[in-house]
Amino acid sequence: MVRNIALLGSTGSIGTQTLDVARRHPDKVKVVALAAGRRGAEALAQAKEFGVRSVALGKESPGLEVPAGVDVSYGAQAVADLVALPEVDVVVNALVGAAGLRASYETLRAGKVLALANKESLVVGGDLIMPLAAQVDEQRRIEGLAPAHGPAGALMPIDSEHGAIYQCLIGEAKREVARLWVTASGGPFRGRTREDLRDITAAQALAHPTWNMGPKITIDSSTLMNKGLEVIEAHHLFDMPYDRISVVVQPQSAIHSMVEFTDGSVKAHLGTTDMRIPIQYALSYPERWDAPVEPLDFTALGSLEFAAPDTDTFKCLALARAAGERGGTLPCAMNAANEVAVAAFLEGKGSYLGIAECVEAVMETHDVEAVESIDQLLEIDAWARRIAAENVC
Ligand SMILES: NC(=O)c1ccc[n+]([C@@H]2O[C@H](COP(=O)([O-])OP(=O)(O)OC[C@H]3O[C@@H](n4cnc5c(N)ncnc54)[C@H](OP(=O)(O)O)[C@@H]3O)[C@@H](O)[C@H]2O)c1
Fold first, then answer.
1. What are 241-269's pLDDT values in tens digits?
2. How far apart are CA 19 and CA 5, in angstroms?
3. What is 160-390's CATH number, 3.40.50.720, 2.30.30.240, 3.30.40.10, 1.10.1740.10?
């Protein structure tokens, strides 16, 4: 069966790797719509290569040469509208930040499969998105689109940790799951003290030891905010209470995550550190297709190390977990503050340690509400961005 995909964030790290998967499996994946932000010319070149007719760009780019037969629309609504095109079966949401929330929501509302890299969607709007995903799962079962065994596949995680847990859980009873172990590389500053981190520059923080990713997630990985966002993502995706989600540093990034069961058994998912594997699995489920990368060579791997994360030095992990545990609209405010602080750090306007301080200041100011609607979340996101801008330090 060919999957017709709309790829949101096609010019980014996950976006271009998704196109690599599509190039390798043209008989299984057809790209039918593309969305990007500022890199309009790149998105149009992709449209030409893959014969895509519908392109949405977040930002108007004057002087773009639009190939014949390609329809280009502009703005956030245009990006969200792509997901409802009748020819789209699967939406790969590889947008960065809370900007991806509406597209995730509209994808599931339109009854389509959501292959989700944009973890911020779940961090901010998990309370709205998961019930929608359950409805689409149910619909897929009724229509005979779900596999005979395992999850119905309406919401497929692309994050390698969540893809790993997803696979470890297949065939298991929920009541027999004791704990999820989310692995972390520890980032480029593992083992450093707060004093060592005082003068860290963006260039230093952008050099991640094991993964090659977009700038925002690379900074989030170095502060361990990324792991905090992933804890919240795991809570929503797998309906797991926070006290049964643990983070462990696994510097080689060979173990992508683990599930512990009530009898003390642990299943771990291992593999080469290449995002095309989890991207491809999110598209191939319940099948497995040929790997686009060399398999892991255990004889060359050497040792596997494990350590507890240092949440005194890397406060963002503790802040995100606290936001998740409190719930409601706090993760939305926390996430927006982090986006502002990270952007300021990348522009040289804020310090590295100031990222956590800014996030904490916004979390302390926010009056938490129960999550009710996308519009409410977008309002809180905008409020948190204003407060965060005043607290960049
Ligand atoms: N990279 C990884 O290895 C990895 C792994 C796991 C999860 N993730 C998650 O995947 C998501 C994407 O990460 P990434 O590393 O691929 O980021 P990235 O390289 O920065 O790419 C982001 C993409 O989103 C587009 N975009 C940004 N704002 C937009 C807007 N307002 N409207 C339309 N398009 C917009 C960008 O377009 P332009 O570049 O054209 O502006 C780009 O195509 C994040 O949520 C991240 O946490 C990434």
1. 999 999 999 999 999 999 999 999 999 99
2. 10
3. 1.10.1740.10
